[in-house]
Specification:
Chain A: This is Penicillin-binding protein 2. The complex is a heterodimer of chains A (about 750) and B (about 400). In chain A, strand 2 and strand 3 form a beta hairpin. Chain A has 3 domains: about 55-260, Penicillin-binding protein 2a (Domain 2); about 265-320 and about 525-740, Beta-Lactamase (2-Layer Sandwich); about 360-370 and about 390-400 and about 415-515, no CATH class. Chain A is α+β, with helices and mostly antiparallel strands and about 750 residues long. Chain A is built from 25 helices and 25 strands. Chain A starts with 10 loop residues before the first helix and ends in an 11-residue tail after the last helix. Chain A is elongated, with a radius of gyration of 35 Å. Chain B has a 3-stranded antiparallel beta sheet, with helices on one face. Chain B has about 400 residues and is mostly helical. Chain B has helices spanning about 20-25, 30, 35-55, 60, 70-90, 90-115, 140-160, 165-185, 190-205, 210-230, 235-245, 255-270, 280-285, 295-330, 330-355, 375-395; strands spanning about 120, 125-130, 135. Chain B starts with 17 loop residues before the first helix and ends in a 5-residue tail after the last helix. Chain B is built from 16 helices and 3 strands. Chain B has one domain. Mean pLDDT of chain B is about 85; it is low at about 1-15. The chains are: A alpha+beta (about 750), B mainly alpha (about 400). Chains A and B meet through helix 1 and helix 2 of A and helix 7, helix 9, helix 12, helix 13 and helix 14 of B.
Amino acid sequence: MTNIPETGRTPRVQIRLVVIQILVVSLLLTLGGRLWYLQVRNGAEYAEEASGNHVQQVVQPAVRGEILDARGVPLADNQTRLVVSASRTELMKMKDDGKAVLAKLAAVLGMSTKDVADKVRLCDSKTPQPCWNGSPYQPIPITDEATPKQALQIRERSEDFPGITAEPTAVRRYAAPGKANTAQVLGYLSPVTDEEIEKAKDTDSPFLRSDQVGRSGLERTYDKQLRGKAGVTRYEVDNLGRVMGKAKSDKAEPGSNVVTSIDARVQAAAEYWLNDAMKKARQEFDKNTGENYKADAGAVVVMENKTGRVIAMASNPTYDPNAWVGGISGKDYAKLTGKKSNYPLLNRAIQGQAAPGSIFKVIPTTAAVNAGYEFHGSYPCPSSYSIGGQVFKNFESQGHGNITLGQALEVSCDTVYYKLSHDEWRKDGGNKPKKDPKDWFYRTAHQFGLGKETGIDLPNEVTGRVPDRQWKKDYWKANKDAWCKQGKKGGDYAERIAYENCLEGMKMRAGDSVNYSIGQGDTLVTPIQMATIYSAIANGGTLYNPTVGKAIVSPDGKRIEEIKPKAHGKLPMDAALRKDIDGALADVATKGTAAWRFGGWPQDKIPMHAKTGTAEVYGKQTTSWFATYTEDYSIVMTISQGGTGSGASGPAVRQIYNAMYGLDDEGNQDLKKALLPKPQKSLPKIQPDGSIDAPKVKPFKPAKPKSPEELQEQQQQQGDPQDQQDPQDQQDQQQDDQQELAGAPAGWRRD
Amino acid sequence: MAGTSGFSVSGYGPERSTLSRLFARDSVLRRLDWWILLAALALSVIGSALVYSATRNRTELVGDDPYAFLIKHVINIGIGLALMAGTIWLGHTMLRTAVPILYGISVFLILLVLTPLGATINGAHAWIVVGGQSLQPAEFCKITIILGMAMLLAARVDAGDREHPDHRTVVQALGLAAVPVAIIMLMPDLGSVMVIVMIVLGVLLASGASNRWVFGLLGAGALGGVAIWQLGVLDDYQIARFAAFANPALDPAGVGYNTNQARIAIGSGGLTGTGLTNGSQTTGQFVPEQQTDFVFTVAGEELGFVGAGAILLLLGVVLWRACRIARETTELYGTIVAAGIIAWFAFQSFENIGMTLGIMPVAGLPLPFVSYGGTSMFAVWVAVGLLQSIKVQRPLSA
């Protein structure tokens, strides 16, 4: 065996075997290279893709924080309800888009098939409510009022109801403690939209698909704090979606509770009396229009003078905010937003604006004094004041002789302000204004904070308007084309006005200035602005940003972030002037235009200050304004198309004070009955577990008002000297009304 | 010869004991190619781990026993090892005489697939089920085609009659391969057809057949591919696989899904992998057929570049040593058999791993030694036996 046998291989085979070997090696190297490329070079990218592959998120919505009143009574809390929801993605997978399932569901829930179908359709520009405004991937709630029996039916026959779930869920409840519905202040929630998710994606509080977002009121302002953080459990799932393990789990963090300065009891009283005043106004005859007052809207604000905190804020017409919970029905939505609805969603205390009428007069009074006029000087109060043939009347063409500015406030004498304003207008150059006019009356209004937001912690506050030179110019620019087209010399009233406006609408005319000085014309204010101003007069001159939120309490009660009062300005008046105006406003309540509404008021114990106002609105009935304050509180009420200040709003404001101070109609105080004789300084008691003590609130029951006859007797017995004007005396009341008409009757522009 | 001397120690008879014979210099064990054996064993061990990882929570397959597949796989390896030992014991030259019978049996078996005994598993009608055990006879065909072609092509050359096989012999050899290819095409099992075509090419190359045959076959293969495409012989799913290969984004939820998920699994493994049984893609069963055709994705995800690279390296060792055997054996018969096996292993590994890496279209082929599957496991171990036999029977060079 020493001979090496001949191999059977020729060089050809030998070469080919080498070729095969090279081929084999190159194939393996190709694989190795590709493997390196996938795993090492692009590994991270694929790892990310893999994690997206097999992770499913399950969201546990955070329990939304409660909104509490100043004593801890929940105004908005949560309630566990059985919510039946439909998954759109599941329904759309079915042949008939889930119609059969929805029909079956409707039968179980006792709803109409159409109602159910409407709830799961997606909102777009052409689809009216009800429709689903949230993400199409989120289960859509059909009802949050399922009975346990219905829920059981759905759950037990889950194969009959694919894509339908019935789960106990925490839903918002607006508890309306003691009938304090507080609707517009609280606001409402609705599902987050895709745009909002996109927008908030990179912020520190991104939205989840399931989130409900505060759309107005406190729910919106404090949305971030109330919302909390939804719990997200990330499950690793297999290719069929079966759960294999928990990847990561963030526990849901409940939202913080917001303690407000609202006192549910006072709020209930304010709502009751506002509504009551409007009902009564509708029974009053308006001789200017020849029909009863419409009293179509109203608002009242109760504010703490020394902090700007809002104790009560009511807007009428109102609605039940629970209508939004669990998706609003089409009927409810129409009721709340339709043309005939009169827009109950509006918070008229901050979004309603109207000419202020005579409650404005504290501003021209301050302006006059700052312009150099003596407060205690002597000013003629004739029955009318004329400018170049135009006659501007005082109430009922009544004159008061020479009076001080204080008395002008007290009797609400218009002609005093006409003259002061007219004089100043002339000093500023009249029709040919100086380059740098002083504009005392306008400047002062700005200094009082008019024409801009008060900065209240509620969304969508409106600014009102100071019709100064700049505004006139801007307004003319915006409207001149229309005016010049419509205007006709010697045409009808509207045409003549348009003609006049076309020619000199950009100018500040004498008539404008004069009308402005008594809070008429183009001036617009909101109730919250006037409450801020009267509070400032009461507190020594500080204009506070009104606040509703008082503190934010973390869910465990450990962190309490107080919302401190913040000022945005000082009234432009020195201490002496403040004292003078304060005195004059007290006189209004004791012997002036509001006196007949404060018969029996314990002025020595609780000094009352007031100013009435009745504003003209072209083509409408007069707006009733009533601005008042005591040492601690201010109350401003307004009723649109409601009549006079003292006539329509006066009794309601007094009743609110009565409830707060525990007074009866005769002025006897019973502190046990007093709801809030002193402002609530402390926060509600927070238990170690984070829960907040809440006293029980009984439904607000107004003290049974005395019948008019009783009232009459009482007053006669008391023989109140200030109240010679018997409220039952139609004549006298009319006179008072006329006082409030403040200047020229309807159509003041024409005069 | 050493070993017999006057001083025989008690206990040492004139006959060497079995043990010492086994370890004698010229013994079979000493002459085995241990590189191939150990590399193939290592691949099988890794494969067992991967099969376990891929199947342990597939309750629809394994029921309550997460080890069901692992146990079957290990048994298959055991049977494979026994088949290898048997093959070595018989020897490839001995088998040479039995080739006609073996070939006949294998063709008969693939014909059975076309009868009602045949079964469709995973879209491929390539199985027969006997007594609950499914077999893929095409795997055996790969061996009998190699042996049969080698027998024909080497006969004259090894006899010293000719330097290279003549044209007639080549035609006979091609005819021998064509019969089972045609039957397998009818199943159709395109993956096996591709592998057999590669085997035929390797065999022809190694046989020293004229270049014209080699290139002619390449040309015919290309033409055949076009014809198959044009004539619509392919099933829709097969066309779809190619389409998805050309453009994986085509239908990520459908056909492209497999390749996409496979690539995600491998890519996410990174350098060192997630660790065995920790791969989320594997555990989540995002890759289909992960214990068989896509077993490499488990390695990619859970063992990373290191582990998957090791598989490539081990395959490389097997193929490198096989090439050496092919080059060093004395008879052309052994060379051709070895070359056929090289072509088989190399192409099947390249196609299998290549499809998981997205550089080859998807075809249902197992990864030699690693994938789960009895028939394939038996076949590759028989092939290893053949390689060993070629090495063992080569006369010692010193």
